[in-house]
TrEMBL record:
TM regions (residue ranges): 12-30, 42-59, 71-87
Keyword annotations of the record: Membrane, Transmembrane, Transmembrane helix
Record-given protein name: DUF4405 domain-containing protein
Length: 166
């Protein structure tokens, strides 16, 4: 076992690090994220095994870094650089799919503003909604309000309006 660790720990760590590095660079520049995302996540997890073996193999030198106190500054610097990425940005809101953000904007906008998205004037949109049996008071109503009063999901209401125009 010790021969296996001595022979393969560092080369495997190097190989999986290269894979993680290449896939990480590809993800950073948005090159084929569908191809690289799973590879990066899973093989970075696999990288932990040879890393632990490498650490085990080099435990003596690692303890030398600890005794000389030359390990602490690089580890602390690494953690400090990582912290900003762990703190949510945007006032505490999580990022997400931009399509969902657009749907939120559309469903919270007054009908007067969202009507054009459905190839209608505000009055035409109100008429279309009322024809579906929905309660609409004015062009200042939102699709969210209308959907809630009809016990629908806003996305269902949008789908109905879009299907009606096909």
């Amino acid at each position: 076992m010790k021969n296996l660790i001595n022979r393969y720990a560092t080369p495997l760590t190097t190989g999986f690090f290269i894979v993680s590095m290449v896939s990480g660079v590809a993800l950073f520049f948005h090159w084929a994220p569908g191809l690289f995302h799973g590879m990066h996540e899973w093989l970075s997890m696999v990288l932990l095994v040879p890393f632990v073996l490498h650490l085990w193999k080099n435990w003596g030198p690692m303890m030398g870094y600890v005794k000389r106190k030359s390990l602490f500054a690089p580890v602390l610097l690494s953690l400090l650089v990582a912290v900003p990425f762990a703190i949510p940005s945007g006032g505490g809101r999580q990022g997400g799919n931009p399509a969902f953000a657009v749907v939120q904007l559309v469903t919270n906008a007054p009908l007067a503003d969202s009507a054009a998205l459905f190839k209608s004037t505000p009055d035409e949109l109100i008429t279309r909604l009322r024809r579906q049996g929905l309660s609409v008071n004015s062009s200042s109503d939102t699709l969210n309000q209308i959907a809630q009063s009809a016990q629908l999901q806003p996305a269902q209401l949008i789908a109905q309006l879009m299907n009606e125009r096909r």
